[in-house]
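From the methods appendix. Each design record in this collection lists the tokenized structure first, followed by the designed amino acid sequence. Records were kept in a plain field format so they could be parsed without special tools. The example shown here is representative of the layout used throughout.

RECORD:
FOLD TOKENS (83 positions):
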């Protein structure tokens, strides 16, 4: 059974979590427990820290299951606008 990508948005950041990639190293939970708490139904609370703090912790995810996008970042799914 394939689990769906989870998305958490707010406070200038979007965090996605792919449960199929997660290796359960718990670096996120140990590193920023106010944001990442597996006891909550929506276990990622993007309002519990700054976007920069969350992005820095997400970057430490060894499996890449967690990803973060700050609004200023350009991604392949965000085409550049013509002026």
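DESIGN:
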């Amino acid at each position: 059974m394939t689990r769906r990508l989870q998305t958490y948005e707010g406070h200038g950041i979007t965090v996605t979590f792919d449960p199929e990639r997660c290796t359960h190293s718990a670096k996120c939970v140990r590193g920023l427990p106010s944001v990442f708490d597996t006891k909550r139904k929506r276990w990622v609370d993007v309002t519990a820290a700054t976007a920069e703090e969350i992005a820095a912790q997400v970057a430490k995810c060894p499996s890449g299951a967690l990803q973060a996008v700050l609004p200023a970042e350009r991604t392949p799914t965000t085409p550049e606008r013509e002026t």
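APPENDIX NOTE: The longest helix spans residues 51-58.
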